[in-house]
Design brief:
3 strands; Sufe protein. Chain: A; globular; alpha+beta
Length: 140
């Protein structure tokens, strides 16, 4: 299997069987956003434990890129500190912008690296990060 095929499989798997989909009881932060160009919608809820993202869940509608990105990024940040979460978000943004990025930090999120070749889809892939960024700003 080529790397491209593997990446496609990861995206399809997370689209069809999303991780961390649903709601949390008494979230510490919640945020939502949309990408009208494609019709994507994502809402996120987070629970913090000190400086750690103890739990994160999302709900959403939209294309396979937007929904798999939400699944992949929630999976990537769960249990991480805020600082680690910010690092993951920054590396992910670098990847989507076509800049150099740290693949070790991104893990399975690298499956979305091809999206950078399709500017219209970059907004689909970055919606989750924008929503997450808003939610993190609610952290006191
Ligand atoms: Zn989309």
């Amino acid at each position: 299997m080529s790397l491209e095929e593997l990446f496609k499989e990861i995206i399809i798997e997370h689209y069809q069987h999303p991780k961390n989909q649903g709601h949390l009881e008494h979230p510490d932060a919640k945020s939502d956003g949309s990408n009208p160009l494609c019709g994507d919608e994502i809402a996120m809820e987070l629970i913090f434990d000190g400086n750690v993202v103890r739990n994160v869940m999302f709900t959403g509608n939209g294309c396979s890129i937007s929904q798999s990105a939400a699944s992949l990024i929630t999976e990537a940040i769960k249990g991480k500190t805020i600082e680690e979460t910010r690092t993951i978000m920054n590396e992910y943004k670098n990847m989507l912008a076509g800049k150099e990025y740290n693949a070790d930090i991104l893990g399975d999120l690298e499956a979305l690296s091809d999206v950078k070749r399709y500017p219209a889809r970059v907004k689909c892939a970055s919606l989750s990060v924008a929503v997450l960024d808003q939610a993190l700003q609610q952290k006191k």
